[in-house]
Amino acid sequence: MRPLLPFVLAASVAAVAPEPPDPETVRQGLLASGRAERERAAASVRAWSRLDPLGAAALWEDLDLRGKTELVRAIAGAGTTHAAQVALRFAKAPEPEVFQALLHGLADGGEKALAAEIPEDVPLLRRDALSQLRYRWKVEAELVRLKSPSGPTGHFAGQYKRLQELGRGVVPILLDIVRDRAHPFPNEGAEGPYRAIHPEIARYDPYELRDMAAHSFGEVVQRDDVASVTRIYELWSTYWKSDQRVEQEDLAPALAFSLWDLGVRGPAETYIAWLRSETDNVSLTGLQRLCELGYANIRIGRYDEGEEAYKLVLDWSPSKALAAYNLACNFAIRSREDPGSNEERFKATALDYLERSIHEYNYGDWGWMEEDGDLDAIRDEPRYKALLSHLMRKYPARKKGDVSKKPEDFLVPGRPEKPR
């Protein structure tokens, strides 16, 4: 029976293969004055271009300027490298509107479209614009890759190494993300909030994207890049004084930690001093600040102070899962940074806290646990593997990129917090 399988598959494929649209119908649609008609025609061109992009491109001669821009964007946006390669033949068209349509189409087409080779005879300025588009896509794609598979994305050392490898050109893009300011599309102006060209980013909380970008500067920016460090400091100063909670309580601390990594310690010290002043009581706000104080101290390497703060959270707070989890991170980091006589003791303590977080306090976000580089030092330990297997059985739906569930589904009880 096995030899028949290829023929059966071939027959099935042939039976369902879509027919190319009628060229004249498509041409009339691209020339139509109504937007809805042109959009239907563009959808037909995209589908056609996945099968025969050269056939779709043959409509070029019979179209006006608006029809040509619609055609080129649709071919480039078909989502295949072959279609994009055909669309790139129009990169030499004298009309600037056609070239801008090509750029937008390649962005629509995504990774496969942007992988198409740029023809050598494309003018230099246009080659540069195409390269800028590819570069920005890589930056946004890396942020998508780094996004936690289950909830708020935490932080660990070395997290943004691949962004750093893209070079200094990432900094202006990341600054615009943090500011929520439009980043210029090649050859175009920029107004309004940041608009990502990577479609996956639209599925995530825009504040989380800003937070990730703010945390990345400590690894992406070079210490000798005085101009960038100054911009980050100015942005921290603005947000620290802001009356918007997200800017003052989330973005300003993330920028302060990045500045600490870049050798500018004042902002982080200011933040920690403020947290200490807010933890003089056992109110819900005070306990929240105490949790943040533990995180902040561990983040800048003051492990004993971080441990002290989180132990108080375990004593007083009804929401203990993240405190125990971050204490596990604390001791796992210390075992890595102090590989001497204390290494095994720190590893054992890290595993103790991780077990408490999971078994006593119902921490369940194994998707982030597997991403979190802070736990790398204990990841090969049998106890860690047993905990991971337990969570995977308890929450079998978790997998990389699954954002269908809320953080509350994996962090019980209490308000979900940002993990380390």
Structural commentary:
This protein is mostly helical. The protein is built from 20 helices and no strands. α10 runs antiparallel to α11. It is elongated and about 75 Å long. The termini are far apart. The N terminus and C terminus are likely disordered.
Topology:
Blueprint: H1 5-16, H2 23-31, H3 35-51, H4 53-57, H5 65-76, H6 81-87, H7 96-114, H8 124-146, H9 161-165, H10 170-179, H11 206-220, H12 226-240, H13 245-261, H14 266-277, H15 284-299, H16 303-316, H17 321-337, H18 343-360, H19 366-371, H20 382-394
Helix pairs in contact: 2-3, 3-5, 5-6, 5-7, 6-7, 7-8, 10-11, 11-13, 12-13, 13-14, 14-15, 15-16, 16-17, 17-18, 18-20
- Major beta sheet summary: none
Structural class of the secondary structure composition? mainly alpha
Radius of gyration of CA atoms, rounded to a whole number: 26 Å
Question: Helical segment tally?
Answer: 20
Distance between the termini: 55 Å
Unreliable sequence segments = 1-16, 400-419
How many beta strands in the DSSP annotation?
A: 0
DSSP strand content: under 5%
Q: What are the secondary-structure elements, in order, as H or E?
A: HHHHHHHHHHHHHHHHHHHH
Query: What do the pLDDT scores average to?
Result: 87
Instruction: Give the overall silhouette.
Output: elongated
Helix residue percentage: 55-70%
List keywords for this structure.
420 residues; elongated; single chain; mainly alpha
Task: Please give a quick description of this structure.
This protein is mainly alpha-helical and 420 residues long. It has helices spanning 5-16, 23-31, 35-51, 53-57, 65-76, 81-87, 96-114, 124-146, 161-165, 170-179, 206-220, 226-240, 245-261, 266-277, 284-299, 303-316, 321-337, 343-360, 366-371, 382-394.
